[in-house]
Specification:
Layout: H1 14-24, H2 34-45
Protein name: C-type lectin domain-containing protein
InterPro entries: C-type_lectin-like/link_sf (IPR016186), CTDL_fold (IPR016187)
Length: 66
């Protein structure tokens, strides 16, 4: 994948996860294709902490000012 990916075992809402990642790492991950999705799926399967049913990635809907 060519990028460092870190799974963080904290329960946060999306905006707090974004701030946490920007403060302590780089940014939330944007998955760029099925190959990267497979890599992330493998990482999640090997996580050494309990996971919630949600993982946050860097998707965001921007609405233009009208």
């Amino acid at each position: 994948m060519g990028r460092k990916v870190t799974l963080v075992g904290k329960r946060l809402c999306w905006s707090d996860a974004l701030l946490y990642c920007r403060d302590f790492h780089w940014d939330l991950l944007s998955i760029r294709g099925p190959e990267e999705q497979d890599i992330i799926d493998e990482m999640v399967a090997r996580a050494n902490f309990p996971l919630t049913s949600h993982l946050w990635v860097g998707l965001r809907r921007l609405v233009p000012n009208l």
